[in-house]
């Protein structure tokens, strides 16, 4: 079938090229109708997510807000000149119809010490916005951000909303920086691999087509689902890597086939061999990406959607645009030779890769044990991994919002920005009945007695002189009859069905001690006649990890089963897919270990410019799903060529050596290009993208340089003829439904294990 498609493209090459260009133009045009990529709401089915939604829905005073910090080296925040300048700078915000209110230290005539830094040289205001969609809030903040100016005071704006806005800005800058680095570097690599300017330009052009199409597809999907801003980085990262990778193999095989063959025959043969491998490689990568959609944590699912889209476009252009260009160019694909570069020189049975594989296959057990042990040893740091959601440290040190958060935490009294929210929820009746007020009082006292709790903000501890009965009597009155300070406290913490208590600690929100405290509050709190719910950053961490753990079996089963079926249809072997899975585990182990060693333990923090800490909860899942498919990429390309040789000769050892010889240089070149693309993203200022880029680069290096080069020949030598064995029913199934290099059923062979040492 693929051979026929290649001949069809040759006959209609200009029309296929036109179709590809029209697809590019169409996707570029449709981009204007796409949605916006942004932050993802935490899964609402978890306790933390559900509780946060309750607070936002039932407490009008919990309007979205952010902080504006003013600092002076000379003036004190208590000086009238400081206060006057601060109020003047905030005046444009007060006039905005999108601003609900601005709270400053100077409201009410007295200076509120909670808003003043410990050294008295800084003060902050709280800007409360009217409720709106997340997308609209981002637009509002972008408009307001530049309105606050001061010639006498330094201004820093911070909080959740500024952090999200800045993250999106930095993420876009990261993308542009990666493109500037990866495109020229990839071109240089392609020139070294092909030795021809024309041949090198073709994969790069195909990559551009794939990226434009995938970005548009992702933005169109963003109109109907929440897709994280990470998606655009993933699209560019994978789109460029995969499109170049696939183009590299097809162009290389075409250059090989045109020696002595008509162009149409060469193109058909190219697509039935290298094209077949590319198709199955795309399927395995797409399977890994689709595996992410089984996760209810939206960050993971959205990356899976974007990754699947980019795989589809990469394969599409590899089978349309690319063969059309090759059909038009023919032997001119080798035009514009690069001096002193001779990639076409290959050994004829005694080349480097042939000699290497034969040497390995003389000592297969020794190679397997030593190399396997080294890779497992590299993965040891992964045993000590600590996982958490990304916090403000995911932004670069010079980010305005990060500097603001650090100031609020360190320089202001009670500046803990990550309290634990304890919510009492009642299905019926008022939350402020005498009995429930008494239960709130007991819960507050119990929380205050917990180790590591610094203070508790509750309705029943506002005045330490009052006891339980006094609070029951006082809070049972109508809200309008309460004194002003108490009335404000009730309005800020009591909803139709809920009462909110804030617990402040001196613990790192990502620490085990903080998690133990949240778990204790959830499980061991005093008895109440309602439901006790907990939210906050630490609760998010706990719930996200639980959500991921629950979804892993489904995703893993989908990836393993579907990948196994795809590899069996390609190779007709029972054991080779299993071997491929085990090789992938070794690659992933080394990659995971390196990530923990680098990003958690901080060994390269100075060089890579990041703050060490727990690994993002979603990162291991993203890397597993993406790298499982990407690792299969070279496995498929190598094994398909080995199988070609085996079907021709029936000699397992010779097939392995010949297959590695014919693909070794190309796989190495493809891996170097893919590593170059991924390394470009390690220059990102956002920690998650930096981690993904480096993790993928390490895994591809291990896979191409160690697993495919050393372990594949060793294991295939040990398995011998068993590499190609399948039981009778499966063998008959493969002969009927499998796809051989020629695409013809009569050419398929299934060998039985007559001599496992041959």
Oligomer: single chain
In the predicted model, the low-confidence regions spanning at least 5 consecutive residues are: 742-758
Task: Supply Rg.
Answer: 31 Å
CATH architectural arrangement of the largest domain: Up-down Bundle
Structural category: alpha+beta
Distance between the termini: 33 Å
Query: How many strands, which pairing sense, and closed or not: the largest β-sheet?
Result: 4 strands, antiparallel
Shape: elongated
Helix percent band: 55-70%
List the total number of helices.
25
Name of the CATH homologous superfamily of the largest domain: Multidrug efflux transporter AcrB transmembrane domain
Q: Number of domains in the coordinates?
A: 4
What's the number of extended β-strand segments? 10
Mean pLDDT: 85
Strand content: 5-15%
- Assign the CATH class of the largest domain: Mainly Alpha
Describe this structure in a few short sentences.
The chain has helices at 2-11, 13-30, 47-58, 80-95, 134-145, 160-194, 197-221, 230-257, 263-292, 298-319, 321-329, 352-362, 364-378, 400-411, 434-448, 468-475, 484-493, 512-524, 537-571, 575-600, 605-608, 619-649, 652-680, 687-719, 728-737; strands at residues 65-71, 99-103, 122-129, 154-158, 387-388, 420-425, 453-457, 498-505, 531-535, 615-616. With 758 residues, the protein is α+β, with helices and mostly antiparallel strands.
């Amino acid at each position: 079938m693929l051979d026929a498609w290649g001949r069809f493209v040759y006959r209609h090459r200009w029309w296929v090229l036109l179709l590809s260009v029209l697809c590019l133009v169409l996707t570029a045009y449709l981009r204007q109708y796409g949605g916006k990529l942004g932050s993802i709401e935490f899964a609402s089915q978890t306790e933390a997510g559900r509780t946060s939604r309750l607070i936002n829905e039932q407490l009008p005073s919990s309007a979205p807000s952010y902080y504006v910090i003013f600092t002076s080296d000379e003036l004190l925040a208590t000086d009238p000149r400081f206060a006057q300048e601060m109020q003047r700078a905030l005046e444009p915000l007060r006039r905005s119809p999108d601003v609900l209110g601005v709270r400053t230290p100077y409201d009410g005539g007295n200076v509120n010490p909670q808003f003043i830094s410990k050294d008295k040289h800084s003060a902050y205001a709280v800007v409360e916005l009217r409720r709106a969609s997340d997308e609209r809030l981002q637009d509002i903040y972008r408009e307001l951000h530049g309105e606050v100016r001061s010639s006498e005071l330094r201004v820093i704006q911070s909080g959740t909303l500024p952090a999200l806005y800045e993250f999106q800005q930095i993420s876009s800058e990261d993308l542009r920086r990666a493109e500037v680095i990866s495109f020229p570097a990839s071109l240089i690599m392609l020139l070294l691999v092909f030795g021809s300017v024309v041949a090198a330009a073709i994969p790069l052009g195909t990559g551009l087509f794939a990226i434009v199409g995938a970005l548009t597809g992702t933005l169109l999907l963003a109109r109907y689902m929440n897709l994280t801003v990470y998606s655009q980085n993933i699209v560019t990262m994978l789109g460029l890597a995969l499109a170049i990778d696939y183009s590299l193999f097809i162009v290389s095989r075409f250059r090989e086939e045109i020696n002595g063959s008509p162009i149409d025959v060469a193109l058909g043969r190219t697509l039935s061999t290298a094209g077949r491998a590319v198709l199955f490689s795309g399927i395995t990568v797409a399977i890994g990406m689709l595996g992410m959609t089984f996760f209810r944590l939206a960050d993971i699912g959205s990356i899976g959607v974007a990754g699947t889209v980019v795989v589809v476009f990469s394969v599409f252009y590899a089978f349309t645009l690319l063969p059309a260009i090759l059909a038009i160019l023919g032997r001119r694909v080798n035009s514009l030779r690069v001096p002193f570069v001779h990639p076409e020189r290959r050994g004829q049975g005694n080349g480097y890769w042939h000699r290497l594989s034969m040497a390995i296959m003389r000592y297969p057990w020794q190679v397997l044990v030593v190399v396997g042990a080294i890779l497992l040893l590299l993965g040891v740091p992964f045993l000590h991994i600590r996982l958490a959601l990304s916090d403000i440290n995911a932004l670069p040190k010079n980010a305005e919002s990060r500097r603001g958060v650090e100031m609020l935490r360190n320089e202001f009294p009670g500046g803990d920005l990550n309290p634990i929210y304890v919510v009492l929820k009642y299905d019926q009746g008022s939350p402020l009945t005498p009995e429930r007020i008494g239960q709130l009082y007991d819960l507050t006292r119990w929380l205050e007695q917990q180790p590591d709790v610094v203070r508790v903000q509750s309705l029943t501890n506002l005045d330490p002189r009052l006891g339980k009965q006094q609070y029951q009597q006082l809070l049972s009155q109508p809200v309008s009859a309460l004194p002003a300070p108490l009335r404000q406290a009730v309005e800020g913490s009591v909803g139709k069905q809920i009462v909110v208590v804030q617990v402040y600690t001196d613990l790192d929100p990502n620490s085990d001690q903080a998690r133990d405290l949240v778990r204790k509050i959830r499980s061991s709190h005093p008895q109440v006649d309602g439901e006790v719910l907990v939210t906050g950053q630490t609760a998010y961490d706990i719930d996200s990890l639980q959500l991921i753990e629950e979804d892993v079996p489904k995703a893993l089963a989908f990836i393993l089963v579907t990948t196994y079926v795809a590899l069996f249809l390609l190779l007709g072997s029972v054991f080779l897919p299993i071997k491929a899975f085990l090789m992938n585990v070794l690659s992933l182990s080394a990659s995971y270990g390196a990530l923990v060693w680098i990003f958690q333990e901080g060994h390269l923090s100075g060089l890579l410019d990041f703050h060490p800490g727990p690994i993002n909860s979603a990162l291991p899942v993203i890397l597993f799903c993406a790298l499982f498919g990407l690792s299969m990429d070279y496995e498929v390309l190598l094994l398909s060529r080995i199988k070609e040789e085996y079907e021709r000769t029936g000699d397992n050892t010779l097939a392995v050596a010949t297959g590695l010889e014919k693909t070794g240089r190309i796989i190495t070149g493809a891996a170097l290009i893919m590593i170059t693309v991924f390394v470009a993203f390690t220059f990102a200022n956002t920690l998650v993208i930096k981690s993904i880029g480096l993790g993928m680069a390490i895994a591809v290096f291990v896979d191409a340089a160690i697993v495919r080069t050393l372990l594949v020949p060793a294991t295939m030598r040990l398995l011998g003829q068993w590499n190609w064995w399948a039981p009778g029913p499966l063998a008959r199934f493969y002969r009927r439904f499998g796809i051989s290099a020629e695409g013809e059923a009569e050419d398929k062979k299934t060998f039985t294990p007559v001599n496992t040492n041959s």
